[in-house]
Design brief:
Elements lengths: L7 E6 L2 H9 L8 E4 L6 E4 L1 H5 L12 H7 L2 E4 L2 H16 L5 E5 L2 E5 L6 H16 L3 E6 L2 H13 L6 E3 L5 H9 L11 H9 L5 H6 L2 H8 L1 H10 L17 E11 L2 H21 L2 E12 L12 E10 L2 H15 L6 E13 L17 H13 L37
Parallel strand pairs: 2-4, 7-8
Antiparallel strand pairs: 1-6, 1-7, 2-3, 5-6, 9-12, 10-11, 10-12
Helix pairs in contact: 4-5, 10-11, 12-13
This protein binds a DNA duplex (13 and 19 nucleotides) through helix 8 and strand 9.
Length: about 425
DNA sequence: TCTCCGATTAGAC
DNA sequence: CTAACGGTCTAATCGGAGA
């Protein structure tokens, strides 16, 4: 008896951010809608109608302005509180279908259906239940590896007669070959724009070409990652399901400003807000950092203006996750780099050299600090209960000149009583 | 020559 | 009227510095 093939399902929400908005705005069900990135900069989610009109993923919104006006495309600022909450509901529902689940991103989840009868029927049930309980449409792809589950999901989404679920494992070898020959290699997970071009130059156009390519040649030209991808396409799982999210090795908090900023105190205010943000992520995973970096940036799209993008780091005498301590370092770094004659458009804070909290590289000369001050703990609790930004480190939020543009945000329907829609 | 490390590249979403 | 272009994260690989 041969070992049975893994039945791995990838559940992917359709046009996720737009779908979240539509749950609370059913009137938008048939109008073209897009959701914009932070600062209302780029298009990050599109309804099918918007896609059909030619709005591109990642397109700067101002470039789509004419098209938008001509066709009445509605643009919304991103509402992450809403999307995170809807995502949690979806993932919660999926967890009932299998003991093994990997939340891969805000709108995608791998669910291990190995050993269960009728995986396709389960896929259909997943689709139905998620839609009934949350209003979010999803597609399900099933395959023997993550890469093939992803590809199967793509087929479930794109195939005209698809019921929204596609099981690659149900195909005969001949059907697999025929199908993969019809799909462009660029659809494969891990094959982006650059690699697509390089593969083409080697005569590799379809997924089948890639699956069939001479392995040592592929390996020497493209490295280990591509070899893994090829093996996954051949049906051998090389990537494990990661059920628990692993601790971040690097944490970045940064933002483009709503308008150019010139004054140091405003920059420092922004930076202190980024420190607060990064530190709360750090504490949430129970870690500490031993290196902090701050960077400033002028607007790189303004070729007519002088450019300056400094970045400065300090190794800390002692690893910490204390916002107050890190904020003092960050403010000093910002001051060191600051030059008054520039218009800054973006800044950020980076924490690295991350270790579990409490693991001390003790220094004989430095007194050891407690791993988590009661003050920081209280701050996290309050901000968690009453919303981010309820309690702030002094300096943070004193100036609002840098705040991002968010002119089209929908209400926080699910996370703020004040915003409950009246039925 | 080897090893280490920071910078760069590529990708995902 | 003009200007308007995201944020985080990882792993592999490259290229130079130093041992």
């Amino acid at each position: 008896m041969s070992a049975s093939v893994q039945q791995l399902a990838l559940v992917d929400c359709n046009n996720f951010y737009v779908s979240c908005e539509r749950v609370f705005r059913p009137d938008l069900r048939h109008t073209p809608v897009v959701v914009l990135s932070n600062n209302d900069g780029c298009v990050v989610s599109r309804s099918n109608e918007a896609k059909a009109l030619g709005v591109k993923m990642g397109q700067p919104w101002f470039q789509a302005q004419d098209l938008a006006e001509a066709h009445g495309i509605l643009a919304l600022s991103s509402n992450y509180a809403l999307y995170a909450d809807m995502s949690n509901r979806v993932m919660q529902i999926l967890s009932a279908f299998s003991p093994r689940q990997e939340v891969y991103s805000i709108d995608e989840c791998f669910v291990d259906l190995t050993g269960m009868p009728e995986p396709k029927a389960i896929g259909l049930q997943i689709r139905e239940r998620v839609n009934a309980w949350t209003g979010i449409p999803v597609c399900v792809g099933i395959g023997p590896s993550k890469t093939l589950a992803k590809l199967a999901n793509h087929i479930a989404k794109k195939h005209p007669r698809s019921p929204g679920v596609f099981n690659y494992n149900a195909l005969t070898p001949a059907q697999q070959t025929k199908l993969l020959a019809q799909i462009a290699a660029s659809e494969v997970w891990g094959v982006g724009r650059r690699l697509t071009a390089q593969l083409q130059a080697q005569g590799i156009h379809s997924v089948q070409d890639l699956r069939n390519a001479h392995t040592p040649t592929l390996r020497s030209a493209f490295g280990v990652v591509m070899e893994k991808t090829q093996r996954e396409l051949q049906g051998t799982a090389c990537m494990d399901l990661e059920e628990a999210p692993s601790a971040k090795k690097q944490i970045i908090a940064s933002r483009s400003f709503g308008q150019p900023v010139q004054a140091l105190p405003v920059l420092q205010d922004a930076v202190s807000s980024f420190v607060a943000n990064a530190c709360s992520k750090l504490r949430a995973q129970n870690s500490q950092a031993a290196l902090i970096q701050v960077f400033l940036q002028t607007n790189r799209f303004r070729k007519d203006q002088p450019q300056y993008s400094p970045c400065l780091a300090v190794p800390l005498p002692q690893a910490t996750n204390d916002s107050l301590v890190l904020n003092r370092w960050a403010a000093a770094l910002a001051e060191r780099m600051y030059r008054p004659d520039y218009l800054y458009k973006k800044a950020g804070v980076m924490l690295s050299d991350i270790t579990p909290a409490g693991q001390h590289q003790t220094d004989w000369l430095e007194p050891t600090a407690p791993t988590q001050t009661p003050l920081m703990h209280a701050l996290d609790q309050l901000n968690q209960r009453y919303g981010r930004g309820t309690v702030k480190v002094s300096g943070q939020g004193a100036y609002s000149a840098w705040q991002m543009k968010q002119e089209r945000k929908s209400p926080n329907y699910t996370t703020d009583w004040q915003n409950l829609p009246c039925v």
